[in-house]
């Protein structure tokens, strides 16, 4: 089933609402999946609309603010796995935003059902070179990163 939503545009239902779209990030364009949690009736909440619209409106300025939390997650994860003392090409030393950007790629935006969270909630999922199986996820609440982990952290 397909709908044409006023905020999310055309979405298709396959257990969740979604579509593939293109987004600009860090000076380039990438193809991502936009996933919007909701029932088959295609009715979304005002909180979901506010979450997505606020992210879109602040996307340009917001992009740089996610890099530090990702680095803050990566460095101890690398150390925890022992790759700060023994080399592993999947976990290289990353100390700059430029090096980090070589290692991550946005692949999805998740807009959960509003009844699950207070505030404006969005999840971002990334592919990353250091963990191709689990990827990287960021949970955002009111446009601030509140959790970083594997991709499933956004659910």
TrEMBL record:
It comes from the Bacteria. It comes from Paenibacillus phytohabitans. Residues 7-154 form the DUF6985 domain. This is DUF2004 domain-containing protein. It holds the Pfam family DUF6985. InterPro entries: DUF6985.
């Amino acid at each position: 089933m397909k709908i044409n939503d006023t905020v999310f545009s055309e979405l298709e239902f396959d257990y969740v609402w979604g579509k593939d779209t293109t987004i600009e990030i860090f000076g380039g364009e990438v193809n991502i999946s936009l996933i919007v949690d909701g029932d088959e009736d295609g009715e979304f909440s005002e909180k979901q609309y506010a979450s997505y619209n606020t992210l879109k409106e602040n996307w340009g300025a917001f992009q740089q603010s996610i890099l530090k939390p990702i680095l803050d997650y990566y460095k101890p994860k690398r150390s925890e796995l022992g790759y700060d003392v023994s080399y592993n090409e999947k976990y290289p030393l990353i100390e700059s935003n430029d090096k980090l950007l070589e290692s991550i790629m946005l692949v999805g935006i998740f807009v959960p059902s509003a009844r699950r969270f207070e505030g404006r909630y969005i999840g971002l999922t990334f592919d990353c070179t250091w963990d191709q199986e689990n990827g990287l996820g960021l949970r955002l609440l009111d446009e601030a990163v509140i959790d970083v982990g594997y991709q499933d952290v956004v659910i």
